[in-house]
Write a structure and sequence with these properties.
Helix content: over 70%
CATH architecture: Up-down Bundle
Order of helices and strands: HHHHH
Largest sheet: none
Radius of gyration: 16 Å
Number of domains: 1
Strand content: under 5%
Length: 156
């Protein structure tokens, strides 16, 4: 399902656009949103593999089989919920960006997506401070989301 998100974002990058300068702003937003989603997916996959390396990628993890970097089933549940929320918001942001036109206010869902990514970073930093690679990947997603918002005039 995460690949569907990426496909949607990448399709936006190639299919939707406006003329000249308008296209470049929208294009920048779409490309950085797609990069953010890729980084978010990479962080999510890393967290899942730290919890249970043998887990079926199509199913929810109900129990961590490893205690890598202090990741327990309870912590995984909290982190997974934050990831789920961010993926849902990313879909809304991609749809809003598709409809966005240069000169309009930035879609509110972009700010929501940035907030959700910052929340994931905070949760992981608080609960798994030793998971530096995971924090780094999640920060990369947040940085790309900020580029998206900057491109369309809604940076926070």
């Amino acid at each position: 399902m995460r690949n569907v998100f990426l496909s949607v974002a990448l399709a936006l990058a190639f299919v939707y656009g406006e003329a000249c300068a308008k296209t470049s702003l929208k294009q920048q937003g779409v490309v950085s949103l797609a990069a953010s989603e890729q980084a978010l997916e990479a962080a999510h996959n890393m967290e899942r593999s730290l919890c249970n390396p043998q887990a079926d990628q199509t199913k929810a993890i109900t129990e961590c089989t490893q205690n890598a970097v202090g990741l327990t089933t309870e912590i995984h549940s909290q982190v997974a919920l934050a990831f789920s929320k961010a993926f849902s918001t990313e879909i809304l942001a991609a749809n809003a960006l598709r409809a966005w036109k240069s000169g309009e206010p930035a879609p509110a869902s972009l700010a929501d997506y940035q907030r959700d990514l910052q929340e994931i970073v905070a949760v992981i930093t608080r609960l798994l401070p030793q998971a530096r690679d995971l924090i780094g990947r999640t920060l990369a997603a947040a940085d790309e989301a900020k580029k998206t918002a900057t491109a369309v005039g809604g940076a926070q």
